[in-house]
Design brief:
By secondary structure, the chain is mostly beta strands. Helix content is about 0%, strand content about 40%. The chain has one domain: Sortase, Chain: A.
Length: about 170
């Protein structure tokens, strides 16, 4: 006579956390801040050979080592505030960034047709070496980085500015 084996039930295991992927959320491709008339495409950039941020002359840059909108981390954009002498008729993308008031809305659009809304919560003057603002924060925020302060002049032209204007915006749920 055969006796059936008892049915074995697998031990319950923890459900793994889902992995957030860029394809799900999309790359940011446009920023709109109507308060200052900003409506600009974004260019994905990284760091140069010396580990300095690549900042395009006339575009707003999305730091592609930072987060994607909606992933719960720091989305970092940067852009110039001064026009280039060779192209004085082309405005710098962040030339009016310092005019953004606390509470101003900012919208990021992604390449998968989603819009993520943020509200300006703070503006900070930081020294160029204070890079903590562009690192992961453990929560979602939008960080806009531009130059501000006194001009640093070399060879008869402005080569840098003494500080960075860090504009922080929090997501609107």
């Amino acid at each position: 006579q055969l006796h059936p084996e008892p049915t074995r039930h697998p031990e319950p295991t923890a459900t793994p956390e889902p992995v957030v992927q860029a394809a799900v959320y999309g790359n940011p491709v446009r920023i709109v801040a109507d308060t200052i008339g900003l409506n600009a495409p974004l260019v994905g950039v990284g760091l140069d050979a010396n580990n300095y941020p690549i900042v395009p002359d006339h575009d707003v840059a999305w730091y592609n080592r930072s987060a994607h909108p909606g992933t719960g981390e720091n989305v970092v954009l940067w852009g110039h505030v001064l026009r280039f002498r060779a192209t004085p008729n082309i405005p710098a993308p962040f030339e009016r960034l310092k005019e953004l008031p606390i509470g101003a809305p900012i919208t990021l659009y992604t390449d998968n047709d989603t819009a993520r809304r943020y509200v300006v919560s703070d503006q900070i003057w930081a020294q160029p070496h204070e890079v903590g603002h562009i690192l992961p924060q453990g929560y979602e925020r939008l960080t806009l980085v531009s130059c501000i302060g006194d001009a640093v002049i070399a060879n008869g032209g402005v080569v840098d500015m003494s500080h960075r204007l860090i504009t922080i915006a929090m997501p609107v749920e």
